[in-house]
Every structure is written in C-alpha cells, then in structure tokens.
Amino acid sequence: MDIIKAVQYYTNRIITDTSSMKVLLLDRETTPIISLVSTQTHLLSKEVYLVDRIENRQRDAMRHLKCVCFVRPTDASLQALRDELRSPKYGDYYVYFSNILKKSMVEMLAENDENEVVREVQEFFADFYAVTPCLFHIGLEPSTHPLFAEGHSWNPGALGRTVQGLSAVLLALKRRPNIRYERNSAMAQRLGRELDYLMEHESSLFGSTSGSPTQLVILDRKNDPVTPLLTHWTYHAMLHELIGINNGRIDLSHVPDIRPESKEVMLAQDQDSFFKQSQFLNFGDLGVSVKEFVDSYQSQSQSHHKIESISDMKRFVEAYPEFRKLSGNVSKHVTLIGELSRLVSQRHLLAVSELEQSLACNEQHGTDLRALRALIANPKIQPENKVRCVVLYALRYEQTQGNAVNELKQLLSSNGVDADMVSIIDVMLRYGGARERQSDIFQNENIFSRGKNIFKGLQGTENVYTQHTPALAIMLEDLVRGRQGLHWQERLPNLDPNARPPMLGNENGMFNQDIIVFVVGG
Fold first, then answer.
1. Helices 310-319 and 328-346: crossing angle, nearest 10°?
2. From residue 470, how far is each of 228, 515, 521 by CA, in Å?
3. Is 445 helix (H, G, I), strand (E, B) or coil?
4. Other CB atoms closer than 10 Å to residue 316's CB: what's the count?
5. What CA–CA distance (Å, rounded) separates 164 from 291?
6. What is the pLDDT of residues 419-432, one digit of tens each?
7. pTM of the predicted model, to two decimals?
8. Each residue's pLDDT tens digit, 90-106
9. What is the C-alpha separation between 7 and 127, in angstroms, rounded?
10. Would you say residue 511 has pLDDT above 70?
C-alpha cells in the first residue's frame, strides 16, 4: 500500500490518456494534491503546455489546445467549470473529478456544455494529500472546516470532507476494510458508520476492491494527547515542527543570510534521495549522514577544508558554488540542518525536551515540579514551550492530590505568558483529560500500573530525549503480531459485530493483513 504511487498513477492517467499538447486546469485543492506527487518537469515531459487554476478567468483562449481538468466535486469547482464550458477557451475538454460524482452533477455539466466540447468525464480517486508512501491527511483547515461543532461532536462540513477523503484513500488502494473504532469516541464511531454507509451505497465501486484483508482503525486524538505535545528528533518531524512544511514546500525566507535560490525549497522522497534515506534519522545521526556527503565531495575535489560541525559545512558550501550545482540536494539539506541547529540552540529545545520526556514517561512529581518552575522562570524559553510543558504536567498529575496546576498557571501569567495561551491548559484537560481518555497512557491510574511505571525506569539507560513510545506504535505492534486479546477487542470494537480478527499468523508470527489508521483530530 503506497499512497504516493496511487496518486501518481491517477496523475499519469490524467495527463497521458489525452495525447498531444494540452492545458491542465486544477482547483484550489487539487493543485497541492498534484504538486505533492509530481513536478513541473514531469508534466512538461507529458506534453502539458500550461498548468493553471480553473478559477482564473484571465487565461488566454487557445482553441488549438486540448484541456484536461482535474477538480474536486464541490460547489465552487462546479461553478468554475460551468463558467468555463459556457465560454470555452480550448478545443476539447477532458474532465476528471477527484471523488464520487452525483448524477445531478453530470446532468449539470451536460446542460452547460452547449458548445459540445466535453469529450470525457471520469472519476479518479485522488482526494487526499499523500505526504509519504504511508502517510496522508485530508487537508482540513480550521478556517474552512472546523473540526468540532459543540463539545466532542463533528462539524458537519468536516465530517463530510473526512468521509470523502477516507473513501478516496480506500478506492485508490482498492480496499474494502473491516472498520474498528475506539469505543469511547462518539466521533470515531460516527465517522465509521458514515463511511460504512457510503461503501454500502456505492457497492459497485467498493465491491471490486481486492488484496489482503484490511482493517481500518479509527482513533481519537483525545486518547493520546501526549505524543503531539512532545519535541520529536527525527529529521522529517523537526522540519515540520520547527520550520514548517506546507504541501512539500519549506519557506526559508526568514532565515538569516539565506541565499536567494534557497528561500523556498521542495521536499519529495522520489526526487530527493538524501531526504528519502535520512528522513527518519535522529538529529545526531543526521549530522553524520550529511557530513559523509560533504566529505565525499571534498575527496573528489581534492579540497582540504577541515569540517567538524554544521557551521563548517555551511561555510564550505558557500565557498564552493560548484558544489551547490553538483549536489543541489545535499546543499539544500546543509542549509536546512543548519537552520534546525540554530533553532534548537536559540529555543533551548534540549532542556525543554528533557523535561517533556520526564513528564511523559516518569512518575516523579516533586522533581518535575521543581524543573517546571525553573523552566517557566527562564526568560530564554519560548512561551509556547512553557505552556506545552505545563499541559503535560496537568495531564499526568491531573488526579494527583496536591498537584500545582493552578500555581503553574499563575506563574505563567506572572512571567508574561498571554492569557489566551494559559487558557489552553484548561482546554486540553477538557479535551483529553483522564475522564475523556480510554487508556492509562501514563500508567499511573492505579497501584499496579504505577509499579510497572517505576520498574520501567530501572531497565537500563535510554536516550533521555526519545524515551516516550507513542500509544499508536504499541497498538500497531499488538495488532500486527496478533496480540488481539480482550483488551484490544474491548477498546477497538468492530463496527460490524459479525467481523472477526484474523486467527492465523505466518511463520514469523505476523498476521497477513493491511492496517489503515485514521486519527480524528490529527
């Protein structure tokens, strides 16, 4: 199951099924969907003369060219398509929708095609954002699709978009899964039921799916609010968290002394071998990996510059413009790693991360509280990092008698943290506090789990910055190895009460099944 290849397959079908020179029209949402998996160079090689937005009415008329449209079946895109067909700028139109079309939509297109320029209408199910071969998102933005309506219930617009995105993932991968959901999440159950209804209603599409037995596991972020609050030290995670990745693009225009050609860079596994090999390396190993590339060039160019740090690498790249041309990807990553190093130092993230990991993994209230007070009083620590650590403290020690949550909130305020940021602490407790969570993620809710937590800390030394194991990793390990005892059956019931988990594993104890995980809340 490779979702990048699934979207690339649809992209190639869209631009190659129509021969000769063509124009590709996209809408606001399909533009980033395509840009994540394809390049301008690839499109040009397939005779795509121009890529533009269908909403742009200032395009020149070129009736000698064919037009390929790939849009979402939304009211806005349909209106733009209707306007286009009433006054066509190109000779023939081949229209592809990223999700299931309603009959009324097809009828609308026919009514507006007075010039009879539409040659083809098809559904190609690329209605999601493929970030890596095994990671996707639906593209819900709070400004356009707020997740919640009231309490822990779906906003109707967000629910509809999520059902559409998940159904497209399943159709692209040719899967009709057994659906499981977290028992304590009404939102996960609602999403599962809506998706199951769609699969029944569109059985002609889903009935043709094949492949390994598949489970779709719908989780709720409220059951593990801890993992997103921690500083993660792998390359891809650090780029996303500290600099920001927007549909494969990284904006470096704010970086001090950045070269003009590096103000915006692209990240794509299939076009960047260094990133593909290094994205899951931790920060320490990453420096070693990029130094090997620079050393390799040095040996080829017979340069004898001494390189012992990231700063040395940056100076070397600046001094050798031909190195940037010869190995543009490595030059790009030297710049990115240099910026990450600067931010880690500037924001004192090693100290912050050490406290985060202690709060997430160890039950030591007095020690944690003293460290947290010192962190809040430190003017060099960013306000959001102070609040993040207090949220972790509040979640872990919520049910501990004598916890100091109120004292810490007052301490934040007295150290200049904005009141709106301080209010996040109470919001997080309402969202993912002990009464809302299904599992004992801190192993501190009874005497037996507290004992297990204490002994876990005695099993040898670990990297203090990577002690935490996400609940998702533990769950997947159990499901893949068939450890689906009463605990998991109760926590993740089947939407279909007649469904059964696979009972036989292979010779390695691994179960022959594909697992797709979707987390409500990201």
1. 140
2. 9, 17, 16
3. coil
4. 19
5. 44
6. 999 999 999 999 98
7. 0.87
8. 999 999 999 999 888 88
9. 9
10. no
pLDDT 10s digits, 130-151: 999 999 999 888 888 888 887 7
Distance CA 377, CA 380 (A): 9
Answer yes or no: are the C-beta atoms of 245 and 239 closer than 8 Å: yes
Residue type for position 46: K
Token look-up 């919640």 returns 148
| DSSP symbols for 124-176 | ----SEEEETTEEE----TTTS-SBSSSS-B-HHHHHHHHHHHHHHHHHHT--
Facing residues of 264 across strands? 251
Beta strands in 242-396 (DSSP E): 249-251, 264-266
Question: Which residues are CB-neighbours of 193 under 8 A, at least 6 positions away?
Answer: 495
d(C-alpha 21, C-alpha 26), whole Å: 17
Stated as kind and residue range, the H or E segment containing 516 is strand 514-520
Token pair 């030297």 is at which residue? 334
E strand or H helix at 386: helix 383-396
Residue 516: beta bridge partners? 216
326 residue type, one letter = L
User: Average pLDDT, stretch 167-187?
Assistant: 92
Residue 156: φ, ψ to 5°: -55, -40
Task: Determine how many CB atoms are found less than 10 A away from the CB of residue 16.
Answer: 12
- Using only the alpha carbons of the chain, give its radius of gyration: 26
DSSP state of 416: T
